[in-house]
Amino acid sequence: MNPFPIEPASLYVGDLHPDVTEAVLFEIFSTVGPVASIRVNRDALTRRSLGYAYVNFHNSQDADRALESLNYTNILGKPCRIMWSQRDPSLRKSGTGNVFVKNLDKSIDHKALYDTFIAFGAIRSCKVAVDESTGQSRGHGFVHFETQEAADLAVQKVNGMLLNGRQVFVGPFVRRMNRSTGHAERNFTNVFVKNLNLDVDEDKLRAMFQEFGDITSSIVMKDETGASRGFGFVNFDNPDSAKKAAEAMNGQNLGGERPLFVGRAQKKAEREAELRAKFEHMKLERIQKYQGCNTYVKNIDDSI
Known about the structure:
Strand order of the largest sheet: 2-3-1-6
Distance between the termini: 84 Å
Number of strands: 16
Radius of gyration: 26 Å
Structural class: alpha+beta
Largest sheet: 4 strands, antiparallel
Helix content: 25-40%
Shape: globular
Oligomer: single chain
Number of helices: 8
Order of helices and strands: EHEEHEEEHEHEEHEEEEHEEHEH
């Protein structure tokens, strides 16, 4: 059912091939019911398609049928993504009901992701991120539910599940501008654990850390064959528990070849920034070490 009564018969159609025109869309959508208008959004200068369009029906019943029957239809070699048009940016950008899914198998496409999550509530939008040059999945996606309750239920039920043989992470989506990238000490609940014995599974990982406080989720990352990759994550209910766990367990040797590393789980941007800083520091050390030690020699015989 359309959650946006202001525009009851308008659909957003995204992920379109650049060659898709209004005529192509009219031929497809008019099979459902009378179409009032279609507009493919284009660049103001080049007039090239921006990859999305708006299809307007005369009544919401036809628009509803189009959404149900044509979503993810292959148009010129690309599956389109349809949702109710929502022009209010505050609703689109609020983040309410938005879920991030990662570690997806490459075979999972938009529709497979949609079919997995629709059981938890009505979905506004569902998308797997793909490489623009190859069209291959990048292994993560986004599901935007109509309600936060549905999103919370999806996180609770699907996080840590196996989808096509891979254990997925499901959590609330956080916009990039709201992600913290500072390096100062701060509160955290998600703990990164590496150098795990290969026989450690989620239950054993949880048992190792449960003395420090309530755990909301634990996951051991696995490869394509289902074997442990030797690291995982433990998410605590509160920051104090996470901090105690990191302080107590970091450096502990629990019968493995190497002591555990336990610390705050970092975002990718943080890890990259730290590596860049480390590289620049090493470069500066090398320059300072050999500064003044170079000798210039000229007039060397060609036989040398």
